[in-house]
């Protein structure tokens, strides 16, 4: 029984570290880019049942007002997910943007700016994949250049 508890604790600690790294990454985006004066940043950990599996998501959303008092806004979503199934796991890291209500009226949809995915692996390999994929976000070219400018 003790080994199971240690395994669960180790898994949760690893996922917590990944969440902290994405939290810092999203805060760094706020510091490095000019989003304007009305910006909200939300960090969430979601744990949801999916059939006979469980999905853990480290979710970070930057909401930028493009109307008065957020009447319309665009969003940047950063998520690291791991789906833990009975015999295998899958994991993904993605950055997506929603251009806002006015853009949706012009049939513009959610745009994926970056995505890395791995399927059908063991839990420890899925956690290692997420850790590396999150660290690699810093090495990517300017993901947000089409959305906003960097501060000088």
Describe the structure.
With 152 residues, the chain is α+β, with helices and mostly antiparallel strands. 33% of the residues lie in helices and 41% in strands. The chain contains three helices and seven strands. A five-stranded antiparallel β-sheet has the order 2-3-4-5-6, with helices on one face. Strands 1-7 form a two-stranded antiparallel ribbon. The longest helix is centred in the N-terminal third of the chain and has 31 residues, at 2-32. The termini are far apart. The model has no long low-confidence stretch (mean pLDDT 85).
Helix-strand pattern, N to C? HEEEEEHEHE
Rg from Cα: 17 Å
On the 0 to 100 scale, the average pLDDT is: 85
Question: So what's the overall shape?
Answer: elongated
What spatial order of strands do you see in the largest sheet?
Answer: 2-3-4-5-6
Task: Provide the low-confidence segments as ranges.
Answer: none
Number of strands: 7
Percent helix range? 25-40%
Class by helix and strand content?
Answer: alpha+beta
For the termini, the CA-CA separation is 55 Å
Number of helices: 3
Largest sheet: 5 strands, antiparallel
Residue fraction in strands: 35-45%
């Amino acid at each position: 029984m003790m080994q199971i508890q240690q395994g669960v604790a180790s898994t949760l600690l690893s996922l917590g570290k990944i969440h902290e790294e994405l939290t810092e990454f999203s805060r760094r985006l706020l510091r490095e880019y000019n989003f304007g004066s009305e910006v909200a940043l939300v960090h969430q950990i979601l744990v949801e049942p999916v059939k006979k599996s469980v999905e853990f998501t480290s979710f970070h959303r930057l909401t930028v007002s493009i109307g008065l008092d957020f009447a319309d806004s665009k969003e940047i979503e950063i998520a690291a997910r791991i789906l833990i199934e009975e015999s295998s796991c899958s994991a993904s890291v993605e950055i997506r943007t929603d251009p806002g209500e006015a853009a949706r009226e012009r049939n513009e949809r959610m745009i994926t700016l970056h995505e890395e995915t791995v399927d059908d692996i063991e839990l420890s390999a899925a956690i290692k994949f997420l850790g590396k994929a999150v660290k690699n976000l810093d090495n990517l070219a300017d993901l947000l250049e089409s959305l906003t400018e960097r501060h000088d």
